[in-house]
Amino acid sequence: MPFTEREFFDVFGRYNAVAWPVVVASWIVTLVYATRLVTTGASSIALSVLAAFHWAWSGVVYHAMFFARINPAAFLFAALFLLEAAALVWFGVVRRDLQFGWQRGAKRTVAMLFFAASLIYPALVIASGHHAPRAPLFAVPCPTTLFTTGLLLTARRTTLAVTIVPMLWALVGGTAAIALGVLPDLLLWVAAGVLAVQIGSCRRHVLG
Predict the structure, then answer these.
(1) Looking at CB atoms within 10 Å, which of 6, 61, 124, 198 has the fewest?
(2) Domain containing residue 67
(3) If we measure between CA atoms, which residue out of 103, 136, 134 comes closest to residue 27?
(4) 173 close to 185: Cβ distance less than 8 angstroms
(5) Of 150, 146, 96, whose CA–CA distance to 125 is shortest?
């Protein structure tokens, strides 16, 4: 890695000091919409917009404005995150192909676990030995990926275009669990496996 562990967590310290209003607000909005989806149902368009916001914010603000100071590859990550945001807007808002609903089955249980993991991610990070504000909390790539994984599991049909970037980031971000001691990021490797199954399902739908 082109940075030290201290530099990595210093980035979060600077990010959280500046972005904390958005961090708190996005956590509350995500909680509200995840709860609505699980209970009474929520607008698929609104959910697509919310997910797109998370990816665009993490790409532009976290990656390009903060993480890029210690890792030039962050600009590539930012571009990928913006592609994911654009895909969510295109397929979820413009074409309305993404329809999210709460249906019975194993997917529902797994989706709920990913929603919960994304929302309690700050507590999991702190419980693993890190200290706020120099720690990843919310409105950053990893909880965004966990939330999106849960959301895609509730979709009646998904496409490769909205699944591939979250899966790639789950593989990349999961390395932080080992290299940097952010143990909750081990969940990203679980997400990568789940999303790989989703991609296989997308391919079968196209071929079938």
Answers:
(1) 6
(2) 5-207
(3) 136
(4) yes
(5) 146
Which own/partner contact pairs does 81-84 have at CB distance under 8 Å and 24+ positions apart?
81/55, 81/56, 81/141, 81/165, 81/169, 82/55, 82/56, 83/165, 84/52, 84/55, 84/59, 84/162, 84/165, 84/166
pLDDT of residue 159: 86
For residue 73, the 8-state DSSP code is: T
- With H, G, I as helix, E, B as strand and everything else as coil, classify residue 155: strand
Question: In the chain, how many domains are there?
Answer: 1
Average pLDDT over residues 123-132: 95
Q: Are 203 and 182 in contact (CB under 8 A)?
A: no
Asked whether residue 67 carries a pLDDT value surpassing 50, the answer given is yes
Tokens coding 99: 């329809």
Q: Measured between alpha carbons, how far is 151 from 153 in angstroms, rounded to an integer?
A: 5
Torsions phi, psi of 196, nearest 5? -60, -40
Placement of tokens 């082109």 in the chain:
2
Q: What is the CA radius of gyration of the chain?
A: 16
